[in-house]
C-alpha cells in the first residue's frame, strides 16, 4: 500500500495536465459566477472564457519542445498534444467570440454555455494528450457530453431538440463500440497503454493477425470515425449541424473532429503500427467514400448550415487521405489541415452567425442573394473562406490539401490523390454557388438586420488573417506540424 | 540590372491598387483615377524593362526570395524575352481595359479592384519561375475573371461564369497533381526537393513522363483553348463585359500557350516531341471547326470569340511545328491576336452600348451611321483576317513559313484555313457596315475617350505589321534556348532547323 | 471449472421451461370469456382512473440524478476513509479536491433552484 501511494506520488506531474486543469478551474469559476449573476448577463462570462483560453494557451505552450509525462503513462503533453491544443483553443476562442450576441439574439442568453465549451475543449485536450486508451475515452466522454447539451441548448426549437437527442443517442452508441474495441485490445495486449500495446504487438507478431486484435481495431475506429464524421458513420452530421446553435455547429465541425483525429493518429500510428496494412486499406476505402458522399450530397443542399455539414464530411475525407499516406508529409499535413480547417470553417460560420435573422430561416442560398454588395466586408470574408474551403491558392485550404495530397503521392497512392483532386473539383460547384448567389443575384432584401457585433467581427478578422497567413507563408506552421508528429 | 525589385513591384503595385480600391469603394472617381494611374505606372515600368538588354542566359531580370523553405518552394520571378513580351502586352492591354470601362456604373470600385487583381495574377503567371508560385498565380487570376463575368456580364452570366471556372479549374487541378508528382520524382532522384523550374528541367521522369506531361497539358489546353475543350470560351465571351472580354482574349488565353512554352515543353521534351502530331491535329481541327462555327454565328461577339479559337489554332500549329520560325511566329501572333481581337471585342461592346444588340440581323449601315466607329472596326477586322502590313499577318506568315519547312501538308491545310477566316470576317464586316440599316433611333459615333482608348491599339497594330523586328528581337534568344533545352522537339521533325 | 456452472444452467432451464410452459398451457387449455373490463391493463376489478402513461414531474428526475451524484460521493468516501491514515496528506488533498468539485456542483444546483419543490 505504501508503495502504491509513493508510486502514485512519483507519477504526479501536474505540468502534463496543466492546460486542461486551468481550463476546468476557469469553467467551474464561470459556472459559479453565472449563478450569482442575473439571467441574461453573459458578456462577462464570455470575456472570462476568452481570458481562460488565453491563459490555457500560454500554459499549453510550455509543453512545446518540453514534453511532460505523468500519471503512470496516462497523459503526455508533447509537441503533438500542444499543436492540437492550440487548434482546440483556437476553435473554442473563435466560437466564444461569435457566441455572445448570437445567444442574445436567439433568446437563449444562457451562462452555462461558456463553461460547457470550456469543458468540451478540456475533453478534446485529454484526447490529444492521452497516451492511454482510458484517458482518451475519458476525454471523449467529457467532450461529447458537453456537446450533447450544447447541441440541444435551444430547448424550444424542435430542430435543436432533434439535434441534441440524435447526437446523444448515436454518440452513446458509437462510444459503446469504442469501449468494446478498447476491451478487446486490452484482452489481447493486457494493457490499455497505447505505447505498451505497440510494444506488445511488435513483440508478439502472431497476435497481429488475431481476429480479436483486428476486431478491436475496427470497433475502435468506428468510435473515432463517428466523431470525425467519416462515411458511413456520418448520418448524424447534417441533422445535428443544422439543428444545433450555429456557433456550436462551428465548434463541433472543428474541435471534436480534430480531437478524434488526434486520438486516432496516436492510437493507430503508435499503438497499432503493426496493423498498418489493415488500417490503411480500411481508411483508404473510407476516405474515398467519405469524400464522395460528402461532396456529392452537398451539391443538393440549399440550407447553408447543412451544406457546410456535408462539406465537413468531405473535409474529413481529405484529412483521412493524409492518414492513409502515413508518412511524415501526410501526417503532419493532417495537423496542418485541421488548423487550416478551423480557421476557414469557423470563419464561414461566423459570417453565418451575423447574417442570420432570429430563427435563422434565411440561411439558405436564396437568402444570400446579393449579400456581397449589401454587406461588402462580410461578402469578401465569406468569399475568402469559401475559396479556402475549395482549396484555391493562396489560402490555407490549398496549402492543407497540397500537403495531404503530396503525402499520398509520396506513399504511392496516386489514385487516391487523383480521386481527392477530382472531389475538390466537384466541391467547387457547391461552394461556388454560394458566391454566385452572394454576388451574381440581385438582392431581395437590404439585410438591415445584420449588425456587426464586435465579437463576431473579431473572430472573422482572426480567421481571415489565419487563412491568408497559412495560405501564403505556410512554412512556419508546417515546420511546427512536422516537429509535432511522433 | 538594378537592385530595385522591379518584378516584385510589378506584382505588388496592382495588389496595392486593389486594396486601395476596396478601401475607397465609396468614391468611384478616385478609384478610377487610381486604377488608371496604377496601370500607367506599370506600363512605364514595363517599357523601361523593354529597353534593357538581357544577360547571356536570356534573363532580363531575376528575383529570388525565400518563401516556403521546408518544401523548397521559393518566390522566384524571372523575365526572359518571352515573358517580357507577355508582360508588356498585359500592362498595355490593362490600360486599354481601364479606358474602355471608364464609365462603369455598377459597383465601379469593385470592378476596378478586380481588374487590378487580375493583372497581378496574370503577371504572376508570366513571371513565376517556381512551379508552386506559378500554380498559385494561375488560380488567382481565375477568380477576378469569374467575378467579372458573373457580376457585370450580360445574359446567361451565371451559367457562363460557373462554366468558365469549373472548366479551367478542373484542368488545372490535374496539373497540380502533375506538379506534385514531378516535384516528388525530382526530390527522390536528387534528394533536393525543389519547385524551381530550372532544377526540375533535369528530372528524369522515366515512365511517368507521358502522364505528367498530360496533366500539365490538360491544364494549359483548356485555357488555350483547344477544340474539344473550348466550349467555355464562346459562352464566357458572349456574356463578359468589355474589359473582361479584352482580358480574356488578350491575356488569359495567352497564359495557356505561355504555359506550354515555358513549362510543358522544356520539362517533358520527349513526350512533347511525341505529342506534336496530335497537337498539330488538334490545332488544325480547331482552326477549321472554329472558323466554320464563326461563319454561322449571328451574334457578332460570339463570332469574334470563335475567330479567336481559330487564331489560337494557328498559334498551336506554330507550337507543333516547333522550329525557330514557327515558334517566333506563334509568339508574335499571340501579341497580334491580343491587340486585334481585344480591339474587336472592345468595339463590339461599344456597338452594343449604342444599339442595344449584337445580332447581325438587327444591325447594318454603320458606315453611314457611325463612320469613325466603322473605320476602326474595318481596320481591326482586316488585321484579324491577316491583311499584309497589319499585325496578324506578320505572325501568321512566320508560322506558315516555319510549318512549311517541316511539314508542308500541315502548312498547306492551315493556309486554307486562313481563307475561311477571310470568309467569316468579310461576311461580318459586310453585314455590319454596309448591310441594310434597320429602322430605329440614330446610333451615335465614338466618343473622344473611346477614340483615345483605341488609338494606341491602331498604332501598335501597324507597328507589329510593318516592323515586327522590334519585338522579334527579344524572342530570338529565348526561342533558341527553348529549342536547345527541348532538343527532341527538333528531332521530331527530322532535325531541320 | 465450467462444471460448477452446470447446476445454475439447469436451474435456469427449468425456470424458463416452467414459466413458458404455464403461459403456453393456459393459452392452450384455458377457457376464455373476454370482456372490456377484463382486457383492461392491470385488471383488478376496479374501474380505471386516467391513463397509465402519465408524465411525472421533471423534479423527480432531477432529484434522482442529484441523489446518484452524491451517493457516489458517499460510496467513494468509505474506502478512502478505511485507508485514510496510510494515504496521509496526499490522500487528504486529493479527496479535498474531489469534494470541492462536488461542492461547486452543489452550490450551482442550489442556486439554480433544483432543490426547491415548488
From TrEMBL, chain A:
E.C. no: 7.1.1.-
Residues covered by the NADH:quinone oxidoreductase/Mrp antiporter transmembrane domain: 131-425
Pfam family, any one: Proton_antipo_M
Catalytic activity: a quinone + NADH + 5 H(+)(in) = a quinol + NAD(+) + 4 H(+)(out)
Membrane topology category: Multi-pass membrane protein
GO cellular component: endomembrane system; plasma membrane
Segments crossing the lipid bilayer: 12-33, 45-64, 76-98, 110-128, 134-155, 167-188, 208-226, 258-275, 281-300, 307-328, 334-355, 376-393, 413-432, 453-473
Subcellular localization: Cell membrane; Endomembrane system; Membrane
Keywords in alphabetical order: Cell membrane, Membrane, NAD, Quinone, Translocase, Transmembrane, Transmembrane helix, Transport, Ubiquinone
GO-annotated molecular function: NADH dehydrogenase (quinone) (non-electrogenic) activity; NADH dehydrogenase (ubiquinone) activity; quinone binding
GO biological process, one term: ATP synthesis coupled electron transport
Top EC class, one word: translocase
Described function: NDH-1 shuttles electrons from NADH, via FMN and iron-sulfur (Fe-S) centers, to quinones in the respiratory chain. The immediate electron acceptor for the enzyme in this species is believed to be ubiquinone. Couples the redox reaction to proton translocation (for every two electrons transferred, four hydrogen ions are translocated across the cytoplasmic membrane), and thus conserves the redox energy in a proton gradient.
PANTHER family, sorted: NADH DEHYDROGENASE (PTHR22773)
UniProt subunit comment: NDH-1 is composed of 14 different subunits. Subunits NuoA, H, J, K, L, M, N constitute the membrane sector of the complex.
Protein name according to UniProt: NADH-quinone oxidoreductase subunit N
Record organism: Geothermobacter hydrogeniphilus
TrEMBL record, chain B:
Subcellular locations according to the entry: Endomembrane system; Membrane
Keyword field contains Membrane: yes
Domain NADH:quinone oxidoreductase/Mrp antiporter transmembrane: 128-420
Matches recorded under InterPro entries: NADH_Q_OxRdtase_chainM/4, NADH_UbQ_OxRdtase, ND/Mrp_TM
GO biological process, one term: ATP synthesis coupled electron transport
Example of a GO MF term: ubiquinone binding
Record field: transmembrane: 6-24, 31-50, 81-102, 109-127, 133-152, 164-185, 211-233, 245-268, 274-296, 303-325, 331-351, 372-389, 409-426, 446-466
Keywords: Membrane, Transmembrane, Transmembrane helix
A cellular component term, taken from the record's GO annotations: endomembrane system
Residue ranges of coiled coil: none
Membrane protein topology class: Multi-pass membrane protein
Superkingdom, natural source: Bacteria
Similarity field: Belongs to the complex I subunit 4 family.
Record PANTHER family: NADH-UBIQUINONE OXIDOREDUCTASE CHAIN 4 (PTHR43507:SF1)
Protein name: NADH-quinone oxidoreductase subunit M
Organism: Geothermobacter hydrogeniphilus
Automatic annotation (TrEMBL), chain C:
Keywords: Cell membrane, Membrane, NAD, Quinone, Translocase, Transmembrane, Transmembrane helix, Transport, Ubiquinone
Bilayer topology term: Multi-pass membrane protein
Alphabetical list of InterPro entries matching this protein: NAD(P)H_OxRDtase_bac/plastid, NADH_UbQ/plastoQ_OxRdtase_su3, NDAH_ubi_oxred_su3_sf
Catalytic activity: a quinone + NADH + 5 H(+)(in) = a quinol + NAD(+) + 4 H(+)(out)
Protein origin, superkingdom: Bacteria
Parts forming coiled coils: none
Annotated EC: 7.1.1.-
Pfam families attached to this UniProt entry: Oxidored_q4
Transmembrane segments: 6-29, 60-81, 87-109
Gene Ontology terms for molecular function: NADH dehydrogenase (quinone) (non-electrogenic) activity; NADH dehydrogenase (ubiquinone) activity; quinone binding
GO cellular component, one term: plasma membrane
Chief localisation class: membrane
Localization annotation: Cell membrane; Membrane
Enzyme class: translocase
Free-text function comment from the UniProt entry: NDH-1 shuttles electrons from NADH, via FMN and iron-sulfur (Fe-S) centers, to quinones in the respiratory chain. The immediate electron acceptor for the enzyme in this species is believed to be ubiquinone. Couples the redox reaction to proton translocation (for every two electrons transferred, four hydrogen ions are translocated across the cytoplasmic membrane), and thus conserves the redox energy in a proton gradient.
Subunit comment: NDH-1 is composed of 14 different subunits. Subunits NuoA, H, J, K, L, M, N constitute the membrane sector of the complex.
Family recorded in the similarity comment: Belongs to the complex I subunit 3 family.
Name of the molecule in the record: NADH-quinone oxidoreductase subunit A
Native species: Geothermobacter hydrogeniphilus
Taxon lineage: Bacteria, Pseudomonadati, Thermodesulfobacteriota, Desulfuromonadia, Desulfuromonadales
Gene: nuoA
Amino acid at each position: 500500500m505504501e508503495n502504491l501511494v509513493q508510486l502514485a506520488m512519483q507519477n504526479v506531474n501536474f505540468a502534463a495536465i496543466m492546460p486542461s486543469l486551468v481550463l476546468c478551474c476557469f469553467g467551474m469559476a464561470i459556472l459559479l459566477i453565472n449563478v450569482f449573476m442575473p439571467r441574461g448577463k453573459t458578456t462577462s462570462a464570455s470575456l472570462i472564457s476568452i481570458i481562460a483560453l488565453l491563459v490555457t494557451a500560454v500554459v499549453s505552450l510550455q509543453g512545446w519542445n518540453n514534453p511532460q509525462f505523468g500519471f503512470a503513462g496516462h497523459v503526455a503533453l508533447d509537441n503533438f498534444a500542444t499543436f492540437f491544443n492550440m487548434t482546440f483553443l483556437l476553435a473554442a476562442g473563435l466560437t466564444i467570440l461569435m457566441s455572445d450576441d448570437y445567444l442574445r439574439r436567439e433568446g437563449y442568453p444562457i451562462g452555462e454555455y461558456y463553461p460547457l465549451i470550456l469543458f468540451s475543449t478540456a475533453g478534446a485536450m485529454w484526447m490529444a494528450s492521452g497516451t492511454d486508451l482510458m484517458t482518451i475515452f475519458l476525454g471523449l466522454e467529457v467532450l461529447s457530453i458537453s456537446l450533447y447539451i450544447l447541441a440541444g441548448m435551444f430547448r424550444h426549437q424542435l430542430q435543436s431538440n432533434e439535434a441534441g437527442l440524435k447526437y446523444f443517442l448515436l454518440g452513446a452508441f458509437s462510444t459503446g463500440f469504442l469501449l468494446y474495441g478498447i476491451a478487446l485490445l486490452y484482452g489481447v495486449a493486457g494493457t490499455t497503454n497505447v505505447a505498451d500495446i505497440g510494444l506488445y504487438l511488435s513483440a508478439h507478431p502472431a497476435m497481429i493477425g488475431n481476429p480479436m486484435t483486428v476486431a478491436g481495431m475496427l470497433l475502435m475506429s468506428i468510435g473515432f470515425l463517428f466523431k470525425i464524421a467519416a462515411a458511413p458513420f456520418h448520418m448524424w452530421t447534417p441533422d445535428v449541424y443544422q439543428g444545433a446553435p450555429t456557433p456550436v455547429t462551428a465548434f463541433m465541425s472543428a474541435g471534436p473532429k480534430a480531437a478524434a483525429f488526434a486520438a486516432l493518429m496516436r492510437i493507430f500510428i503508435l499503438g497499432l503500427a503493426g496493423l498498418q496494412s489493415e488500417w490503411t486499406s480500411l481508411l483508404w476505402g473510407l476516405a474515398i467514400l467519405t469524400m464522395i458522399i460528402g461532396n456529392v450530397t452537398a451539391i443538393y443542399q440549399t440550407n447553408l448550415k447543412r451544406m457546410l455539414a456535408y462539406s465537413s464530411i468531405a473535409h474529413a475525407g481529405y484529412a483521412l487521405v493524409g492518414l492513409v499516406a502515413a508518412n511524415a508529409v501526410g501526417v503532419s499535413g493532417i495537423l496542418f489541415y485541421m488548423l487550416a480547417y478551423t480557421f476557414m470553417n469557423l470563419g464561414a460560420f461566423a459570417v453565418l452567425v451575423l447574417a442570420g435573422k432570429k430563427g435563422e430561416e434565411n440561411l439558405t442560398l436564396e437568402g444570400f442573394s446579393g449579400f456581397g454588395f449589401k454587406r461588402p466586408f462580410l461578402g469578401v470574408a465569406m468569399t475568402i473562406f469559401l475559396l479556402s474551403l475549395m482549396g484555391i491558392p493562396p489560402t490555407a485550404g490549398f496549402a492543407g490539401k497540397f500537403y495531404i495530397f503530396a503525402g499520398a503521392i509520396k506513399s504511392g497512392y496516386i489514385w487516391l490523390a487523383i480521386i481527392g483532386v477530382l472531389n475538390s473539383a466537384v466541391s467547387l460547384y457547391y461552394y461556388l454557388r454560394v458566391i454566385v448567389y452572394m454576388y451574381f443575384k440581385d438582392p431581395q432584401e437590404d439585410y438591415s438586420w445584420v449588425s456587426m457585433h464586435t465579437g463576431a467581427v473579431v473572430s472573422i478578422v482572426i480567421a481571415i488573417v489565419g487563412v491568408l497567413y497559412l495560405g501564403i507563408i505556410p512554412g512556419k506552421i508546417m515546420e511546427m506540424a512536422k516537429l509535432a508528429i511522433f | 540590372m538594378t537592385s530595385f525589385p522591379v518584378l516584385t513591384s510589378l506584382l505588388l503595385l496592382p495588389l496595392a491598387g486593389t486594396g486601395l480600391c476596396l478601401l475607397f469603394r465609396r468614391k468611384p472617381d478616385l478609384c478610377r483615377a487610381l486604377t488608371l494611374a496604377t496601370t500607367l505606372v506599370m506600363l512605364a515600368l514595363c517599357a523601361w524593362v523593354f529597353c534593357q538588354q538581357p544577360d547571356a542566359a536570356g534573363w532580363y531580370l531575376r528575383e529570388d526570395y525565400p518563401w516556403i523553405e521546408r518544401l523548397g518552394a521559393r518566390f522566384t520571378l524571372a523575365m526572359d524575352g518571352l515573358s517580357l513580351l507577355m508582360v508588356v502586352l498585359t500592362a498595355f492591354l490593362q490600360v486599354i481595359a481601364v479606358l474602355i470601362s471608364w464609365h462603369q456604373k455598377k459597383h465601379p470600385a469593385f470592378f476596378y479592384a478586380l481588374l487590378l487583381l487580375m493583372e497581378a495574377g496574370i503577371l504572376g503567371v508570366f513571371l513565376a519561375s517556381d512551379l508552386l508560385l506559378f500554380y498559385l498565380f494561375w488560380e488567382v487570376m481565375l477568380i477576378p475573371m469569374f467575378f467579372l463575368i458573373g457580376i457585370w456580364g450580360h445574359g446567361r452570366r451565371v451559367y457562363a461564369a460557373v462554366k468558365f471556372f469549373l472548366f479551367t479549374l478542373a484542368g488545372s487541378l490535374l496539373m497540380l497533381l502533375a506538379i506534385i508528382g514531378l516535384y516528388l520524382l525530382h526530390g527522390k532522384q536528387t534528394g533536393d526537393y525543389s519547385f524551381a523550374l530550372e532544377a526540375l528541367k533535369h528530372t528524369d521522369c522515366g515512365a511517368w513522363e507521358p502522364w505528367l506531361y498530360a496533366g500539365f497539358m490538360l491544364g494549359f489546353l483548356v485555357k488555350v483553348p483547344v477544340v474539344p475543350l473550348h466550349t467555355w470560351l464562346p459562352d464566357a465571351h458572349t456574356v463578359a463585359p468589355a474589359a473582361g472580354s479584352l482580358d480574356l482574349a488578350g491575356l488569359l488565353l495567352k497564359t495557356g500557350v505561355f504555359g506550354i512554352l515555358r513549362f510543358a515543353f522544356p520539362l517533358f521534351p520527349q513526350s512533347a516531341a511525341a505529342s506534336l502530331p496530335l497537337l498539330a491535329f488538334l490545332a488544325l481541327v480547331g482552326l477549321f471547326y472554329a472558323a466554320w462555327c464563326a461563319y454561322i454565328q449571328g451574334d457578332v461577339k460570339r463570332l469574334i470569340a470563335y475567330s479567336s479559337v481559330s487564331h489560337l489554332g494557328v498559334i498551336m500549329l506554330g507550337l507543333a511545328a516547333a522550329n525557330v520560325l514557327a515558334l517566333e511566329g506563334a509568339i508574335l501572333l499571340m501579341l497580334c491576336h491580343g491587340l486585334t481581337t481585344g480591339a474587336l471585342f472592345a468595339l463590339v461592346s461599344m456597338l452594343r452600348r449604342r444599339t442595344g444588340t449584337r445580332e447581325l440581323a438587327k444591325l447594318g449601315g454603320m458606315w453611314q451611321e457611325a463612320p469613325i466607329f466603322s473605320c476602326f472596326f474595318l481596320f481591326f477586322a482586316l488585321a484579324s483576317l491577316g491583311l499584309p502590313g497589319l499585325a496578324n499577318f506578320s505572325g501568321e506568315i512566320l508560322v506558315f513559313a516555319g510549318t512549311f519547312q517541316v511539314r508542308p501538308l500541315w502548312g498547306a491545310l492551315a493556309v486554307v484555313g486562313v481563307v475561311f477566316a477571310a470568309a467569316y470576317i468579310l461576311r461580318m464586316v459586310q453585314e455590319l457596315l454596309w448591310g441594310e440599316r434597320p429602322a430605329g433611333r440614330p446610333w451615335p459615333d465614338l466618343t473622344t475617350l473611346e477614340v483615345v482608348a483605341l488609338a494606341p491599339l491602331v498604332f501598335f497594330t501597324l507597328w507589329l505589321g510593318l516592323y515586327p523586328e522590334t519585338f522579334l528581337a527579344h524572342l530570338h534568344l529565348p526561342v533558341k534556348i527553348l529549342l536547345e533545352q527541348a532538343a527532341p522537339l527538333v528531332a521530331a521533325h527530322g532535325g531541320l532547323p | 471449472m465450467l462444471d460448477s456452472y452446470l447446476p445454475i444452467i439447469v436451474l435456469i432451464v427449468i425456470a424458463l421451461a416452467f414459466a413458458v410452459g404455464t403461459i403456453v398451457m393456459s393459452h392452450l387449455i384455458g377457457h376464455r370469456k373476454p370482456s372490456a373490463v377484463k382486457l383492461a391493463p392491470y385488471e383488478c376489478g376496479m374501474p380505471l382512473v386516467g391513463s397509465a402513461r402519465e408524465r411525472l414531474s421533471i423534479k423527480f428526475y432531477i432529484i434522482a440524478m442529484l441523489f446518484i451524484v452524491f451517493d457516489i460521493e458517499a460510496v467513494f468516501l468509505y474506502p478512502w476513509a478505511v485507508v485514510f491514515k496510510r494515504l496521509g496528506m496526499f490522500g487528504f488533498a486529493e479527496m479535498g479536491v474531489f469534494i470541492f468539485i462536488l461542492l461547486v456542483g452543489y452550490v450551482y444546483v442550489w442556486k439554480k433552484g433544483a432543490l426547491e419543490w415548488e
